[in-house]
Amino acid sequence: MKFSRKKLTFIPVLVLISAIIFPSFTALAADASYKFSAINLKLKVPEELICFTQTTTGNNAYLKDIGAEDANEVQNSMKASNIYLEAFSKDISYEIAVVGMKAGSSLSNLDELDENQLSGMFLQYIDSENAKQEDGLTETMTGKAIDIINDRPYFRTEVTSVSDEKQTIYTRKYYTVARGYIYMYSLQSKDNEITDEMINDIRYIINSAQYTDVKKSIFENGVFTETLSTILTAAIPIAILAAIYLLITRVGRKSRAKLSSEEAELRARFKQEHNKK
Question: What transmembrane ranges does the database entry give (predicted)?
């Protein structure tokens, strides 16, 4: 019975370790939750999306699918752009990026503005967005509005961009300022117009967002998570082999004990029959 208890606890431990090393496994189990202490944000991502963060490790099975050489490339790119989370569809046809940064002292939280102030700030935001032009792209704003999500205003813009190579990119972006931070949720789709399914995904993430104090965790350190991942990747096969060895030796001891018992029983029976004669 003692060995059985060990065996039962060993399996959940393996599952837990696998969840730490292979984030894609946890995403299959349930909607994934994320916390970012640097921008005081908590959110959830639909289970069908592939996620990357600034602490993504080399064990992420989807790195090659997005054209990344290694985890460092993803981490550095995200940090340079203030992206804290990137979520992709399984076919990499569209992506959702969550951007966060400290707001300037002159920028007010949107939920603290009255209707006139909010409208004025929205017009200023639209002007600044229209003024942005990226080389090699022709951009057209096709839609704009102030959306209220969970009692919080978001500036929504829709842009169609056409590159010099005639590739079309469709973008829908939500912008808000809360508790002294700027948050942007951006949905991009290449060559295919944005669908209701894509909108549902980004709205789900925004609906789940909590702008609250988040305690810094050691797991937000990319070096730590990569080191831990490497250690655990080596430890799991060893642990599995050890479990198999224990199982085999345990079964072996049982078999030898059973054979000895049967042999003793046969000897006793033979002796009893011999004495009768």
Answer: 228-248
- The count of domains in the chain is 2
* Pair 195, 139 in one domain: yes
> Tens digits of per-residue pLDDT, 36-83?
999 999 999 999 999 999 999 888 888 989 988 888 999 999 999 999
178 and 260 both lie in a single domain: no
The whole domain housing 258 covers 235-276
Note the pTM of the prediction, 2 decimals: 0.71
Does 153 map to a domain? Answer: yes
Q: Does the pLDDT at position 247 exceed 50?
A: yes
In this structure, the strands spanning 210-211 and 152-163 are unpaired
CB–CB of 229/59 below 8 Å?
yes
21 in a structural domain: no
CB atoms within 10 A of CB 14: 13
The answer to whether position 96 is within a domain reads: yes
